[in-house]
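dumping this here so i dont lose it
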């Protein structure tokens, strides 16, 4: 880090940007009164973030109270982001592709099995024991089995299979619970109007089960984050988890923390998108239940 040019030491610049932005927002609120609630809401958060950054800088770079290199300064972490920006971008893209493939496969499988178990009694009889037996097994415990089934050249598919399995179980359980608890009055009204079985499933049962389905989506997304990191550290040859293992081997903890920072933003953004989807599809719940 010491050999990097001055522009790759972004911590002082970050503080200047925060100071300029905070001062501008404080001044603008007097000219634009609608801005005042936002300024009052976000001001403590910004002050807290600056206090944490300052405390980390004092403990690592200034006082060196924490052992180096395990606890790098904020400047080292931000500088690592700039130094390895290309490979971090590629790793993030690879992690996104792997997560998307595994998550969508798990959601699709969970929806199908959940609807089958929730609607058809014969499917519930045969699939419930299977679900109760293999569903609770952690996906990470299946890593040796998946690595045996898939050759090294198909490590991407083995990682996606692990993620899909981790998502499948909560999706199935919550979708089946939602389908099973659809009020009979909804179905009776539709039947009196001549609705077919397929119409009842796709136009009555599934929409009524959406709150449970979204619970499954949230739980599945959390499980997929954990499985993604494990899959990338043991089998996949790219991605943020792989990058962390690689840099940890060279004791480049500044780069490890930089990738963790990207990971936090990455996962938080995906969770925010899912919340936005829930707010859109379940907007009828506003005012009915507490969000």
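and the seq i came up w/
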């Amino acid at each position: 880090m010491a050999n990097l040019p001055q522009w790759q030491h972004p911590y002082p610049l970050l503080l200047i940007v925060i100071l300029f932005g905070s001062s501008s927002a404080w001044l603008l609120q007097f000219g634009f009164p609608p801005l005042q609630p936002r300024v009052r809401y976000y001001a403590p958060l910004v002050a807290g973030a600056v206090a944490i950054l300052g405390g980390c800088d004092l403990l690592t770079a200034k006082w060196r109270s924490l052992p180096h290199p395990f606890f790098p300064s904020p400047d080292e972490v931000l500088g690592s982001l700039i130094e390895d920006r290309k490979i971090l971008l590629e790793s993030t893209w690879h992690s996104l592709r792997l997560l998307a493939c595994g998550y969508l496969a798990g959601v699709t499988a969970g929806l199908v099995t959940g609807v089958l178990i929730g609607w058809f009694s014969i499917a519930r009889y045969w699939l419930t024991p299977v679900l109760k037996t293999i569903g609770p097994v952690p996906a990470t415990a299946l890593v040796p089995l998946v690595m045996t089934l898939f050759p090294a050249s198909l490590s991407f598919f083995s990682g996606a299979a692990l993620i899909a399995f981790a998502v499948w179980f909560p999706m199935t359980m919550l979708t089946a619970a939602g389908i099973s608890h659809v009020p009979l009055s909804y179905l009776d009204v539709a039947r009196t109007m001549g609705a077919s079985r397929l119409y009842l499933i796709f136009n009555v049962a599934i929409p009524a089960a959406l709150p449970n389905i979204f619970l499954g989506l949230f739980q599945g997304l959390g499980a997929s984050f954990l499985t993604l990191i494990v899959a990338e550290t043991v089998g996949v040859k790219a991605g943020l988890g792989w990058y962390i293992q690689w840099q940890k081997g060279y004791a480049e903890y500044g780069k490890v923390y930089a990738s963790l920072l990207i990971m936090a933003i990455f996962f938080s953004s995906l969770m925010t998108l899912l919340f936005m989807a829930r707010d859109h599809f379940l907007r009828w719940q506003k005012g009915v239940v507490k969000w």
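The chain has twelve helices and no strands.
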